[in-house]
Amino acid sequence: MARDLYADIQEVLVSEEQLNQRTQEIAAEIDARYGAIDGADEILLIGVLKGCYMFMADLSRAIKHPHRVDFMAVSSYGNSTKTSGAVQIILDLQKDISGKHVIIVEDIIDTGLTLQYLRKNLIARRPKSLEICSLLSKPARHKVEIPVDYLGFEVPDEFVVGYGLDFAQLYRNLPFVAILKPEVFS
Ligand code: IMP
Ligand code: MG
């Protein structure tokens, strides 16, 4: 029999309904903001793979403003639950972003080191504007201050999985955000 991922869950932190509602709210905020900017007839969502994929799909579907999507992949964690601090670009954007209105779409801000690096890297490419949208944030773990323009939920200092977020590449398919039982990590 296939392994039951649901049996590994200790607690659901953010439910499917909460995720859906907050995503619609963020999309409405983005529509309102860019609808009011002269010359911002188009925006570019840059998703940070892999963790962003589910949030990105739902957010993109909920945004009415014309937008394109592109993706980057960076390495930070490997199979461990601790950040290495070192960020490396594994997959870069397909197109130049100079003069574009860009929103980075992240799954979670933990130490903030990944976004700090990405932000600097993307600003150097001279976008017209650069905003940050993160589904989750763990304030207790931040090592650097990141200006977040759109935030889904704050979560406690726990390793979370689901809705795109993994532990050792599993649990991404869970439709909610949850904490795993301690024995799963050992
Ligand atoms: P940061 O650079 O420490 O902010 O970490 C950013 C990246 O680490 C996120 O984009 C996630 O991919 C991963 N990460 C951080 N915390 C968690 C977690 O609780 N669950 C799953 N992935 C996490
Ligand atoms: Mg990530």
* Beta fraction: 25-35%
CATH class term: Alpha Beta
The span between the termini is 22 Å
Bound molecules: inosinic acid, magnesium ion
Rg, rounded, reads 16 Å
Strand order of the largest sheet: 4-3-2-5-6-7
Shape: globular
Structural class: alpha/beta
Point out poorly predicted stretches. Answer: none
- Predict the CATH topology: Rossmann fold
Please tell me the overall pLDDT.
94
Relative helix content: 10-25%
Which sequence of SSEs, written as H and E, runs from N to C?
Answer: EHEHEEEHEEEE
Q: How many β-strand runs?
A: 9
Count of helical regions: 3
Integer count of domains = 1
Can you summarize the main beta sheet?
Answer: 6 strands, mixed
Name of the CATH architecture: 3-Layer(aba) Sandwich
Detailed description of the structure:
With 186 residues, this protein is α/β, with parallel strands linked by helices. The chain has one domain: Rossmann fold, CATH 3.40.50.2020. The chain has three helices and nine strands; from the N terminus they run βαβαβββαββββ. The strands form two sheets. It has a six-stranded mixed beta sheet, sandwiched between helices. A three-stranded antiparallel beta sheet has the order 1-9-8, covered by helices on one side. The model has no long low-confidence stretch (mean pLDDT 94). The structure holds inosinic acid and magnesium ion. Inosinic acid binds next to strand 5, helix 3 and strand 8.
